[in-house]
Amino acid sequence: MSMNTLLEVSGVSVSFDGFKAINNLSFQIAPAELRAVIGPNGAGKTTFMDIVTGKTKPDEGRVLWGEKSISLLSMNEAAIARAGVGRKFQKPTVFEDQTVSENLMMALSADRGWWSVLWFRPKAENRDRVAELAEEVGLLDQLPRLAGELSHGQKQWLEIGMLLAQEPRLLLVDEPAAGMTPEEREHTTDLLVEVAKTRAVVVVEHDMEFVRRLNCKVTVLHEGSVLAEGGLDHVTADPQVIDVYLGR
Amino acid sequence: MSRSFIAKNPSVLVFLAGLALFTLLVTVFSEGFGVGGLSTSFVKTLGKTLCLCLVAIAMDLIWGYCGILSLGHFAFFGLGGYMVGMWLMYARTEIIVEGALAQGAIPPTSQEVIDGIGTQIFGVVGSSEFPSIWAFSDSLILQLMMVVLVPGLLALIFGWLAFRSRVTGVYLSILTQAMTLALALYLFQNDSGLRGNNGLSGLQNLPGVSASQDVVSIWFLWASAFALGAGYVLAAFVVSGKFGSVIRGIRDNEARVRFLGYPVESFKLMLFTLTAMIAAIAGALYYPQAGIINPAEIAPIASIYLAVWVAIGGRGRLYGAVLGAAFVSLVSTWFTGGQAPDINLGFYTIQWVDWWQVILGLSFVFVTLYAPKGIGGLFDLIKTGEKS
């Protein structure tokens, strides 16, 4: 694995009841790179994320992480998250029963063992960091509110904020712009582009307009493997891509 | 830590003050220490109720806050009672046997004393040998340690097996029911070493204490009140900070907490074990006031009642659990104790001993459907009333 690769997925396959959800998939991303993953429904986008985050174990293939090329396949979800992989779900999943500030505080990078969590009491620097994150995602004045009271777009941002609070090296973001207003989308794009300057960000998205604005390398998935990879103009010109995805 | 945590939870101080006032009033009106007015048996009922409130707090922590509907916490409660009961029975029988043997011409050997105690305790199940689980029963200190260690270890092993395999929801509830049922069935056997269905009895008599039950009942009331207060503060501390956030997160979306990097299983295991220990301490204080413990106490239904108390009181808030346990168990005592007058309708006589169960069942259904916040939810109404 080259020095310039943070995550390397190679030759991965997984099938559910005989259906091959992922078929000999290979994928690489650099430590500071923005990547969009597109593909029709059932192309294996979510399963791909499930494999990287440890939710699903592949039947074959390798998933290597970091400079030391550690295999993620032997680790559970929590350990992978602690290693630096953050995930944002398609449907906003924040803890609705708790305040915005509690949500961010829980996500804040710190020792995750139960003993230190039990004795954890927020210091000034923790509170400053929470405020900073809230400002970054535009929720500074919402800190004391319950997350359940936020609008759909605000919940999406809170979840992005929580993702950033974890200080991951790789962010897997599933359809961040779903259900957002045009202004909210623009804000989200800016945020992702900014974050990708220092980290690896993989955005799974349906909306081509949104992908165009991200202005990054695109990977097209189809039937569980990579169909095409390159700039958006390059892949949209690919006859195979047009055939299976854009043509419809 | 303590200042900010108490400041954030004013209900803790209110609760402690209320508990202290209650204890003081009962003491003042008791036969043993005060002017009289409350019978000793009623004082014992109140003391037992405090223990039930404590086990309800444990249930609220594991179910109301962490979403694990354990229907087996009364097993830990009962085990705590058995552990303290072993010492009480041994030490008291020892005094009686020594007294009886001292009448003889030759002083008894220690083996004769032990044989005598064995015959006294295990004669009822046709044995006189001490089973190995009674090895520490002559030591109060060791037996008190076993009050928390034995149920804690059981919870640790059970929880490790269940949580590691990611058993959740209704499947876990069934598993905990199976655990308490298996333990009860085991203890029902005569060769279980804990006197089968006879259980341990005479626990109200403290060895070497000549004070009357009027006085002893107040001692136990104080001890129960202290344990409840300490348990409340501990529980409030546990749920106040980030730990509370994480366990509530586990309740609402376990997978999400895992993707934040938290080892969900170890949080559950720790909380399951801690609450088992709290339940055991509550049981260890309850049974000396009840006087007797037998395997029927940890039948599956007991743990289900515990869940009903917490649901009616309002889960996810500590005072709700306390209110629910106190209210339902006291009302239950009133109805099933024969104090409630039967109602004769002419064609049918309503006997509350039977019908109370129906009322309890209906109120559980009602609370679940129409008032999920339970009795504790009434406090929210007051709060919102103040705001507007």
TrEMBL record, chain A:
- CDD domains in alphabetical order: ABC_Mj1267_LivG_branched
In alphabetical order, the GO MF annotations are: ATP binding; ATP hydrolysis activity
User: Could you tell me the EC number(s) of this protein?
Assistant: 3.6.3.-
Pfam families in the record: ABC_tran
Instruction: Quote the InterPro entries the UniProt record gives.
Output: AAA+_ATPase, ABC_AA/LPS_Transport, ABC_transporter-like_ATP-bd, ABC_transptr_urea_ATP-bd_UrtD, P-loop_NTPase
Outline the extent of the ABC transporter domain: 7-248
Q: Which GO terms describe its cellular component?
A: plasma membrane
Per UniProt, which keywords does this protein have? Answer: ATP-binding, Hydrolase, Nucleotide-binding, Transport
Quote the NCBIfam families the UniProt record gives: urea_trans_UrtD
Q: What is this protein called?
A: L-cystine import ATP-binding protein TcyN
Automatic annotation (TrEMBL), chain B:
Q: Name one GO molecular function term.
A: branched-chain amino acid transmembrane transporter activity
Where are its TM segments located? 46-64, 71-90, 140-163, 170-188, 216-239, 260-286, 292-311, 318-335, 355-372
Subcellular location(s): the record lists: Cell membrane
Classify the source by domain of life. Bacteria
Keyword hit for Transmembrane helix? yes
A cellular-component GO term for this protein: plasma membrane
Its keywords, alphabetically, are: Cell membrane, Membrane, Transmembrane, Transmembrane helix
Pfam families (UniProt xref): BPD_transp_2
Task: Please list the coiled coil stretches.
Answer: none
Q: InterPro entries annotated for this entry?
A: ABC_transp_permease, ABC_transptr_urea_perm_UrtC, LivM-like
Which segment of the chain is annotated as a signal peptide?
A: none
What membrane topology was assigned to this protein in its record?
Multi-pass membrane protein
UniProt protein name: Leucine/isoleucine/valine transporter permease subunit
Q: Which organism is it from?
A: Tritonibacter multivorans
